[in-house]
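Can't attach files on this board, so I'm pasting raw text. These are the components:
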Amino acid sequence: MIETLLLYLFAGSALVAAALMLVLQHPMRVALALVAVMLSLAGVYALLGVHVIAVFQVLIYVGAVMVFIVYAIMLLDVREHSVRRFSAWLVPGIAGLLVFLAIVAHGIWHDLPVPSAAAAGTRFNLNEFSRAFLSDYWLHFELTSVLLVAAIVAALAVLKVGRRPHG
Amino acid sequence: MLIAVAMALFALGLLGVIVRRNMLVMLMCMELMLNGVNLSLVTFAQQMSSAAGAVLVFLVFVVATAEIAIAIPIVLLLVRRKHVMDLGAYADLKG
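---
Top answer:
Structure tokens for the assembled complex are below.
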């Protein structure tokens, strides 16, 4: 009972913070709203029983990605001269969003199999998960390491290209 | 219920990318889209009781980190050149 209540609470706070991200002006406040979204989602994951993903959500997203973004915001600290917060796509964007939501909600409503109560009760098994991760999905694991190496090299190359005109 | 929340998060992130002008805010809205996808993956993995969804969530974590690690230096370079965060100022990048 209390778990269901907490689930609704976390999901609602994630939605409210996500909506705040669209209307807040300063990038730092948007970043704090995004941190609130991520922490709420970590709470949702923990309530669903996938504690590993909840921990990694906090560690990787809040701990690494958001700290990086906050540092970038502090480093740039550009005063906004334009008072316009939204682009010219505001009205078409909102109209497209409504159409998109209607279409996807229609699809979800009609095509999704109703989850059985037995399947919803299964708990996440870390042992099984890690065995599947490193035996069945080893190729994907290796591909992500290749992706990370490529990202590091690309970041270094971008910074080196940017430094050249300044001597 | 959680699928609807995931869909709403993805849609809000997409709307943010379309509507906002600040480059860093657009990047953060992309992160919001990835978070919505992660939530739907976890929910489906719980319903189907398979490990594939959780594996895919970890891969999405890695992709999101790599994306931010590339995107932030590019934004830094752009802003260092023009001192504006507004994306409309970079319309001359159009090929």
